[in-house]
Amino acid sequence: MKKNGIVATLDKSKWKTADEIASAIKKEYGVNVALKCNGGVLYEVFMYFAAVGRDEYVPIDVPANLKHNCGKSGSKVGLPPKKMTETQLQVLKETLGYDLEQVIRKDEM
């Protein structure tokens, strides 16, 4: 994704819109995806696959009715780094009001 200008960062100046992120993924994999956000931060990408033979899967477009839920069209979306220090998690919580650990726990229930 980095080659398409999408980087995981807490720096808001480098954030992209959901459409820009989805377009970069489509460039990379050739299919449409749907993004799931919470509080302006991306935490899930829906990507569908079809089985080809017994052991191979190929990406396919998500259904047209599956839409992004990443805020208003054109609003920027944060993509947090894969691994964050405790300090970075605290900055994310304090500056954005976003508790990544709480979101992860909620989704695991």
Brief summary:
The chain has 109 residues and is an alpha+beta fold. The protein has helices at residues 18-29, 86-96, 100-108, and strands at residues 16-17, 34-38, 41-46, 48-52, 56-60, 76-77.
3D architecture notes:
This protein is an alpha+beta fold. It has one domain. 29% of the residues lie in helices and 23% in strands. The chain contains 3 helices and 6 strands, in the order βαβββββαα. The chain has helices at residues 18-29, 86-96, 100-108, and strands at residues 16-17, 34-38, 41-46, 48-52, 56-60, 76-77. The strands form 3 sheets. The chain has a two-stranded antiparallel ribbon with strand order 1-6. The longest helix is centred in the first third of the chain and has 12 residues, at 18-29. It is elongated, with a radius of gyration of 15 Å.
Topology readout:
Blueprint: E1 16-17, H1 18-29, E2 34-38, E3 41-46, E4 48-52, E5 56-60, E6 76-77, H2 86-96, H3 100-108
Antiparallel strand pairs: 1-6, 2-3, 4-5
The number of distinct helices, counting runs of at least 4 residues, comes to 3
In which range does the helix fraction lie?
25-40%
Helix/strand-derived category reads alpha+beta
First-residue to last-residue Cα separation = 30 Å
What are the secondary-structure elements, in order, as H or E?
Answer: EHEEEEEHH
- Number of domain units: 1
Question: What's the total count of β strands?
Answer: 6
Mean pLDDT: 80
* Anisotropy-based shape: elongated
Poorly predicted spans: 103-109
